[in-house]
Amino acid sequence: MILRIFIFALILLQSTLGLTQTKEISTEFSSLTLQYNSNEHQLSEESIKTLKDFIGKSVQAKDHKIQIESHTDQVGSSTANQILAQKRTQAVKNVLINFGVDSTQISGTAYGESRPLKSGKDEQSNSENRRSVVRIMKPTTYYLLKGTVRPDTVTKNFSAKVLISGGTFRDSTIVGKDREFSMYVPVGQKLNLSASAKNFFSQSLAVNVPKSQEISPVNIILKSIKIDKVFDINDIKFVGDQAGVLPESEPALNNLLRTMQINEKVCFEIGGHVNFPGAPLSSGKFFDLAIDRAKSIYNYLNKNGIDPKRMNAVGYSNTKMKFPNPRTEAEHQENRRVEIIIRKCDQISKTKK
Fold first, then answer.
1. Of the residues 80, 108, 140, which one is the last residue of a structural domain?
2. Which CATH number does the domain housing residue 130 bear?
3. Does some domain include residue 132?
4. How far is Cα 136 from Cα 105, in angstroms, rounded to an integer?
5. Tens digits of per-residue pLDDT, 301-353?
6. Distance CA 276, CA 273 (A)
7. How many domains would you assign to the chain?
8. What is the distance between the alpha carbons of residues 335 and 191, in angstroms, rounded to a whole number?
9. pTM for the whole structure
10. 81 in Cβ contact with 112 (< 8 Å)
């Protein structure tokens, strides 16, 4: 009896700490749409072959579930169309069972004419509305990720948005007065988490929820936006000796874009820097590279709707290296960077004249 009480207390403690807060959610793995002739419910030979190819190895995957939903056009009475949709669902189910799919893995729904793909009543619209959609659902374990988002300064009425995305997964939540958040996220996936708030610079970080389902709470501190404050964008990576941005920079670029979308009245300078120990450059390839990299970020923001009047691209060449005599690769990397400097809007307009 004492042992049972101890085990129950341990489970309760783990739940409180978030270590056992998981749930299974069926997510769509893939889907197939099958079409019908008017007023028919049996599958054509071509559709049967297509369905067999689609199901493939899912027949052996006992943890997979198959959902069928069937629809009709809007020709005829709604009662007759509901019965026709039911027949279509049953016909697909029968074919799947013939393929060897266990009937307990299959569920079906008939919507009749209630959920048309196309609103028109012409033959093209009717043809697209006569369909069965077969979905393979795969169970995914989700873990309750917890964390906090806090401002670096004392702020009243602080509110932030947390966005988590990766692969086909995407979810968001709002952080309120308690500065805390919790979200169910898929286990075993590499995710990107970003937090953003008005008057603060957005921050993002990589989150990998291991299959052990144990991960420490995520704690983020957002830096306030102030005139002349400098923000290093270290996660924006460039092609070697070029201005082209590498694909892995996408989260950092999105983060920068989100910052400027939320803070629509903020003006800023994009500063480009290169790693070139020695005397300050006044011309040449690396002198041009600094401004070209700044312009690359400028063009990205402009393309995504940021008003060019709010920003300016400046090349600092090698005049502001963090490490004038770099000794490690990390120090070289720190010198190769793009910075965002918050400026007064009239400063930006003057420098652009």
1. 140
2. 3.30.1330.60
3. yes
4. 10
5. 999 999 999 999 999 999 999 999 999 988 888 888 899 999 999 999 877 66
6. 9
7. 2
8. 28
9. 0.68
10. yes
Residue carrying structure tokens 């669902």 = 89
| Domain of residue 92, residue span | 26-140
Q: 87 near 140, Cβ under 8 Å?
A: no
**DSSP of 209-241:** --TT---PPEEEEEEEP-TT-EEE-TT--B-TT
Q: For 258-286, how does the pLDDT look when each residue is reduced to its tens digit (9 = 90+)? A: 999 999 999 999 999 988 898 888 889 98
124 backbone dihedrals φ, ψ, rounded to 5°: -65, -45
Asked if 219 and 274 count as a contact pair (C-beta separation under 8 A), the reply is no
pLDDT single digits (tens) 207-260: 887 776 567 889 999 999 999 999 988 788 888 788 888 888 888 999 999 999
Cβ atoms within 10 Å of 177's Cβ, excluding its own: 9
- Tell me if 39 is assigned to some domain: yes
- CA distances to 2, 5, 15 from 8, in Å: 10, 5, 11
- Do the beta carbons of residue 300 and residue 341 sit within 8 Å? no
Q: How far is CA 289 from the centre of its chain?
A: 31
> Can you spell out the DSSP letters for 310-346?
GEEEEE-TTTT-S-SS--SHHHHHHHSEEEEEEE-HH
The answer to whether the CB of 320 falls within 8 A of the CB of 239 is no
Q: Does 338 fall in a domain?
A: yes
Per DSSP, helices labelled H in the chain are 2-17, 45-55, 78-98, 123-129, 250-262, 285-303, 329-335, 345-351
Place of tokens 């300064």: 153
Domain boundary among 90, 120, 140: 140
User: What is the token pair recorded at 2?
Assistant: 């004492």
- Are 233 and 344 members of one domain? yes
Is 234 in the same domain as 352? yes
In a domain, 220, yes or no: no
Residues 128 and 238 in one domain: no
